[in-house]
Design goal:
binds zinc ion, alpha+beta, 5-stranded mixed sheet, single chain
Length: 389
């Protein structure tokens, strides 16, 4: 799995890596289950304390209490889990309680943190100790050494390590370091308008369009096949469980591919352009227009990544109002062609006789409306075209 920047505050960077499959992962499974057990124990203590005193149990008192319990033979299995992981659990519960009390003070309704099912407990976090990164792709957690798929050097000082089990039973490491997330990209002076589409993912006003990968479409046959297999299996059978797992694996692979494509593209675009204008996404309308394929493309999650990278790099992403008729307006003379139909990919302006490519024309209009809204002056798309040609 690729290592990619995730969305964190400040100058932190998260590296994600999958652990090799090995029997040792059961040790980690046990620790995750144990973390769940301790979590529920802490919740029970909190609830009892709250019932008695109507206030929150102090986090240090709680940690001390757990440390004492670990010495008793009845709780000696708790010693398997690093003390830092226990501290993290106590602190997290403390945070949610503080939030609960603050909400209560302001009359906002919210619940206290509640018990979690064993099967829903998925991870534990270590801070400064309890693990060690070794040479190559090895990591020591507790007293065991594990290997992971390493696609990138881990930069910076490690702040936390989270060990997480996913639906498929694979274990992932999330390593948060203080490395600077991304360098600020230099100013390029480039301004573009962009229009999302089905075949062409992005039509860019300077002509440098981005084609759609349609991973989902490519994998549709595989998904259909796996789905069919699943439906033929007997309910509650082992084979059915296996088939469901392989379907989940397929979905996950596609999601990973899509996310990689989004990050890569967002990175490229935010390097290249200083200002990018878009139409405000109207997912409902797009779905009515294009049907299922829209979820393949996941414009919305792409925009989130793009906006995030732009904010880090000091670039501007701006969405123009939803009601600007960007496709129907002639970008040369301003004539509005009201009867434009969806299937018309090209149209000729009856006023100035210009032949328009539907999406390209929209990208020009998005650029112009965006630029004038932000007061960048009258940016002529044809001029930028000429420069880039
Ligand atoms: Zn015209």
């Amino acid at each position: 799995m690729a290592t990619k920047p995730s969305i964190t505050k400040g100058q932190m960077k998260t590296f994600c890596a999958k652990l090799y499959k090995s029997k040792k992962k059961w040790v980690l499974y046990d620790q995750i289950t144990l973390a769940g057990e301790i979590y529920n124990h802490c919740i029970a203590l909190h609830k009892r304390y709250y019932r008695l005193y109507n206030k929150s149990l102090n986090v240090y008192a709680l940690i001390n209490h757990i440390t004492k319990l670990k010495k008793l033979s009845r709780y000696k299995h708790w010693r398997q889990l690093g003390s830092q992981a226990i501290q993290d659990i106590a602190e997290r519960i403390d945070k949610s309680y503080k939030l609960f009390f603050r909400n209560q003070k302001h009359g906002i309704k919210s619940g206290t943190p509640h018990f979690k099912k064993r099967t829903n407990y998925k991870s534990f976090t270590l801070k400064q100790s309890g693990y060690k990164l070794l040479d190559g792709n090895r990591i020591k957690i507790g007293n065991k050494i594990y290997k992971y798929f390493k696609s990138q050097e881990i930069e910076g000082n490690v702040k936390t390590l989270t060990i997480k089990r996913d639906k498929l039973g694979d274990i992932y490491l999330y390593i948060v370091t203080d490395a600077e997330n991304l360098k600020v990209a230099p100013r390029t002076g480039e301004i573009v308008g962009c229009d999302f589409g089905l075949k062409t993912f992005l039509t860019v006003s300077n002509g440098e369009d981005v084609e759609s990968p349609l991973f989902f479409h490519q994998n549709r046959i595989a998904i259909r096949k796996t789905n069919r297999k699943l439906s033929k299996k007997q309910r509650l059978s082992n084979n059915r469980r296996k088939a469901r797992k392989s379907l989940e694996r397929l979905h996950k692979r596609i999601a990973n591919k899509r996310s990689d494509f989004h990050w890569k593209l967002a990175n490229e675009l935010t390097d290249k352009y200083d200002f990018m204008f878009f139409e405000t996404l109207n997912i409902k309308a797009m779905q009515m227009l294009w049907g299922k394929k829209i979820s393949d493309l996941a414009f919305f999650s792409f925009m989130l990544k793009l906006k995030y990278l732009a904010s880090v790099k000091g670039k501007t992403i701006f969405c123009i109002g939803r009601f600007v008729p960007s496709s129907k307006t002639c970008s040369v003379c301003g004539y509005v062609y009201k009867d434009l139909e969806l299937k018309e990919r090209e149209w000729r302006c009856p006023e100035c006789n210009t032949l328009h490519d539907r999406d390209r024309n929209a990208s020009y209009n998005i650029l112009r409306v965006g630029a004038s809204t932000l007061g960048l002056g009258d940016v002529s798309p044809l001029q930028t075209m000429a420069i880039s040609a």
